[in-house]
Amino acid sequence: MEKISCPGFQAAGVEANIKKQGIRDLGLIFSERPAKVGGVFTRNLVQAAPVVLDRELIQSGQARAIVVNSGNANCCTGVQGMEDAKTMGQSVANDLGISSDQVLVASTGVIGAPMPMDKVTDAIPELVKSLSPNGFSDLALAMMTTDTVPKLVSKQGKINSNKFTVTAVAKGAGMIHPDMATMLCFVCTDIDADPDYLSYALYMACERSFNRITVDGDTSTNDTALILANGFSGVSIENSIHKASFQGVLDDVLLYLARLMVKDGEGATKLVEINVSGALSDGDAHAVAGTIGNSNLVKTALFGGDANWGRILAAAGRSGVYLEPDRINISFNDVLMYHNGMGCGPEAEKIATIVMKKPEYAIHVDLQIGNGKATMYTCDFSYDYVKINADYRS
Amino acid sequence: MEKISCPGFQAAGVEANIKKQGIRDLGLIFSERPAKVGGVFTRNLVQAAPVVLDRELIQSGQARAIVVNSGNANCCTGVQGMEDAKTMGQSVANDLGISSDQVLVASTGVIGAPMPMDKVTDAIPELVKSLSPNGFSDLALAMMTTDTVPKLVSKQGKINSNKFTVTAVAKGAGMIHPDMATMLCFVCTDIDADPDYLSYALYMACERSFNRITVDGDTSTNDTALILANGFSGVSIENSIHKASFQGVLDDVLLYLARLMVKDGEGATKLVEINVSGALSDGDAHAVAGTIGNSNLVKTALFGGDANWGRILAAAGRSGVYLEPDRINISFNDVLMYHNGMGCGPEAEKIATIVMKKPEYAIHVDLQIGNGKATMYTCDFSYDYVKINADYRS
Fold first, then answer.
1. How far does B266 lie from chain A, in Å, by closest CA?
2. pLDDT tens digits for A118-168?
3. Nearest one of B27, B350, B20 to B169, comparing CA atoms
4. What's the confidence (pLDDT) of residue B242?
5. Is A385 in Cβ contact with B112 (below 8 Å)?
6. Which residues of A touch B311 (CB under 8 A)?
7. What pTM did the predictor assign?
8. Shortest Cα–Cα distance, B292 to chain A (Å)
9. What is the distance between the alpha carbons of residues B108 and A234, in angstroms, rounded to a whole number?
C-alpha cells in the first residue's frame, strides 16, 4: 500500500487485545501543532459515551489528538462508560504532554459491554510511541470491525497555487444508512480555517457522500466524523473561492471512502449506483433512490443477479412521493428495462443479466415528471450479511 | 385439516398451470346470493391491474364472486393487463351466469410478466365446476406463492343469540410491511351490513392485524383485502353493540391470519412480539415497535439467538420519537436485559438466550415516559430469506 500521510500529522495503530490477539484495535491521530476542529455526529438518540464527550470537547474549537478503539462501542455503559471515555483521553493526554480537553475519543464495536480499560491504558504508552507520519494505514487497520479492507485516502488541492492536503481514514461496513455520518471518519488537513466553517464543510461533504450510501438501513449509536485542520500548509480558507476549492477536495475524499464502505458492505458482492431523475424535486428523487437502495427485495434480487425491475418499481411506488408509474423509465446501465408502463421483454432482461454480473453498475430510474435528481449507492444483500450479523458477538 | 366453510358461500382452487404442473394456482369464491362488499387496497402508487379494477367494481357495494390466481401479479402489464383482468372476471361471470361487474379479480406473483390468459380461461370451466362449500382449503392452496402453509380460519360469534360466521383465506409470506393490507385476504361472512360499514370494519381489523406485522419492510403492488357479506345468517349489523360484536370476531380472524403470515415469513424460524409501552403516545410506541421489528440488525440477531439488546436500543433511538435512553427497560419475555442505562450482565444474557430458543417469544421495551403502547409482530431474518428472494423468479 502506498504511504498515506498529511503534513504536520502523525498516526498510529497498535494491538491492545480488546479484540483477538494479533489484531490492531487501538489507534491515534496527533497534530504536531494545535489544530482547529469540526465534527458531525449521529442523530440517533441513543449515543455512546465518546459521542457525548466529543460533542462537548469540540465546543472549544481546538483539538490535538483523536484516540479510537475498535471491539467495544462504549455505548449503554452508564456512568462508568463516560468515566472510561474520559480516562482514555486523559491517558493519551498524559503521554503526549497535552491537556486532556485536546483529546477526542471514539469507540466502535459491540454495544453494552464494559470497556476493558486495563487493556486500553496498558497499550497507550506503546500507542503514543508508535506515532509516525506514515502511521495512517495502521490507524485504519485499528478502526476495523466487520470491515474487510482498511479505508484511507489522501488527496491534494491548490488555493492560489499553494498546495494543501486532505487525508482521511474511516471504518464502516454495516449499520450504514443515510442519516448523518454513519460510521467513524477522521479527516486531517493542513489548511487553516475557522471551526464553525470546518463543521459546516464536513457536514456538506457528509451529505454528498456518507448520506448517499446504504448497507442495511440501520444507524449507529457511535457515528462520528471529525476534522482537524492544523494550518501546516500556510493555506487559509478566507473567501468563497477558497471554500469551493477546499470543499471539492473534501467531497472527493469522503465520497471515495463512502463508495469503499458500500463495496465493503457486510456480505456485499456488488456496488450499485441508483440514479433517480425527473422527480418533482431533488428531495423527492432522494426519497425514491433511498427507498430503492434500501429495499431488501431489491437488494436480494441484486445478489441473485435477477433483473427484477418490478421490485424497483414497487419500491419507488411506496416511497411516499408523487410519481406516475406509466411514465417511468428504468434502465440497468444503458439497457432499457421498463418503459410506457410495461417491461421491455425477455431480450432486454437477458442483456441486463449480463450487466448485473459486473462488480459495479448503475440503475437509472427516470420519473419524467420534473427536474429533481439524486444518486444513492447501495450493495447487494447476501447470505453473508445474515451470517455476519447473526454471529457478530459470538 | 378440519373443513372450513361459511354458510351460503362456495369456494374452489384448481391447477391452471400458471405455475408448475401439479400445483393449484387459480381460485374462486362464490356467494350463493348477492352479497355486500367492502375492500381495503395497497397504498403503493404502483398498482396492479386487478387492484385498479376492484377499486372501481366495489363502488357498487355488491359482488358475488372473487377470482384469484397466483404465479403472476398482472402488474406493470399496461393496457393488456387491464384487458386480461377484465377477461378473467368476464369468463368467470359467463360460467356462473352472473354479470361481470359482480366478479372481483385478484392476482399475486411475479410483477411485469404478461398473464398466460389461455391457461387461465381454459381452466375456468373446471374451476366453476369445482365450487363447493368445503372448497376454502383448495382456494387457500391456490393463492400461495412463497407461502409454505395455506392460511385460512373460521370463527363464529353471536348477536342477540343468533350465530354468525366469519371465514377468511389469506396469502402472504414476504413483502409484508405495516402499510394497509399487505397481502391478499378474502373474508366471507353471513351477516348483513351496509357496504361502507364493511369497508370501515375491514380497515379497522387490518389496522389491528396486518398493519402490525413486518417481514421485510416492502409493500406490494397487489395488496388487497376484500369482504363479502351475504346475510345468510339473518344477522344484521344495525347498532354499535352489533358492530362491536362483529368487529371482535373479524379482528380475531385477521389477527390469526396475520400472525400466521409472520410465522410463515420468508425464511422465518421465530415469531417475535415487540411490545412497546411507556411512550408519549400510541403513535410514538407504534413507531418504536415498527423500527425495532423492521431492523435487519435486530432480525439477524433474532436468527442468531443473540440477546443483543444493544441493537434493539439503537433501533429505538433512530425511530424519530422522543425517548430517554437511561429510563428504558428492555426484557426478553420476563428476563430484564437493560435497565438504568446499562445491560443487566452476562447472567441475564444467558437466560435470555434460552428464551430465544423458543419458537415464539416477546420483547418488551418500556420507555417509562408516558402511557402510549403498541404491539408489532416480526420474524427473524435468515439465510433462507436471502435464498428465497435471490432466486424468486428463477
1. 11
2. 999 999 999 999 999 999 999 999 999 888 899 999 999 999 999 999 999
3. B27
4. 95
5. no
6. 111, 218
7. 0.79
8. 10
9. 66
How far, in whole angstroms, is CA A355 from its chain's centroid?
Answer: 27
Nearest to A297 among B297, B326, B389 (CB): B389
pLDDT, tens digit, 9 for 90 and up, residues B290-315: 899 988 889 999 999 989 898 899 88
Do the chains contact at A111 and B310, CB–CB below 8 Å?
A: yes
The DSSP 8-state label assigned to residue B132 in this structure reads: B
Helices (H), B228-345: 240-263, 282-294, 296-304, 309-317
Chain B residue numbers with beta carbons less than 8 Å from the beta carbon of A279 are: none
Q: Which residues contact A259 (CB under 8 A, 6 or more apart)?
A: A213, A271, A377
Rounded CA gap, A74 and A217, in Å? 22
Q: What is the DSSP letter of A192?
A: B
**Domains in chain B, CATH or no CATH each:** 9-263 (3.60.70.12), 271-390 (3.10.20.340)
Check if the interface score ipTM surpasses 0.85. no
Q: Nearest CA to CA, how far is A187 from chain B (Å)?
A: 25
What positions of B carry a catalytic annotation? 182
Best residue in B176, B318, B327, B391 for a mutation probing chain A (most A CBs within 10 Å): B318
Alpha-carbon distances, residue B340 vs A79, B325, B343 (angstroms): 10, 8, 8
Cβ distance B147 to B173 under 8 Å?
yes
Residue A192 Rama label (left phi>0; alpha psi -120 to 50; beta): beta
pLDDT tens, position by position, B142-181: 999 888 899 999 999 999 999 999 999 999 876 555 443 3
Active site residues of A: 182
Q: Enumerate residues 6+ apart whose C-beta is below 8 A from A373.
A: A275, A276, A277, A278, A279, A282, A285
